[in-house]
Amino acid sequence: MSKQVCVDCITDSYLQTNFADNDVDECDYCNEERPVVTLEELVEELEEAIQASFTYAEQPPRSYSSWIPT
Ligand SMILES: [Zn+2]
């Protein structure tokens, strides 16, 4: 089963806003009940965000590791 991460553990404000309306469940990182997203969904969203940042050049691309808590 895929890990879930809550909006509070995601350090990126764009992604926090994006997933703020997700279903509430227990976060696998902080164990709080908050809107969560699976890591698969998060990576998909990151890939889209990175592609968008290349396309529009509004933000420099960032590495995944700074967005996903360890
Ligand atoms: Zn959390």
Report on the architecture of this protein.
This is HEPN/RES N-terminal domain-containing protein. Residues 23-66 form the HEPN/RES N-terminal domain. It holds the Pfam family HEPN_RES_NTD1. The protein has 70 residues and is of the alpha+beta class. The protein has 2 helices and 3 strands; from the N terminus they run βαββα. The protein has helices at 13-18, 39-56, and strands spanning 4-6, 24-26, 33-38. It has a 3-stranded antiparallel sheet with strand order 1-3-2. The model has no long low-confidence stretch (mean pLDDT 84). Zinc ion binds at residues 5-6, 8-9, 27, 29-30, 32.
Share of residues in helices: 25-40%
The total beta strand count reads 3
Structural class: alpha+beta
Bound molecules: zinc ion
Low-confidence stretches: none
Biggest sheet: strands side by side, in what order? 1-3-2
Task: Give a short account of the largest sheet.
Answer: 3 strands, antiparallel
Form type:
globular
| Residue fraction in strands | 15-25%
Order of helices and strands: EHEEH
The tally of domains stands at: 1
Distance between the termini: 18 Å
Cα-atom radius of gyration: 12 Å
Number of helices: 2
Average pLDDT for all residues: 84
InterPro entries: HEPN/RES_NTD1
Protein name: HEPN/RES N-terminal domain-containing protein
Domain HEPN/RES N-terminal: 23-66
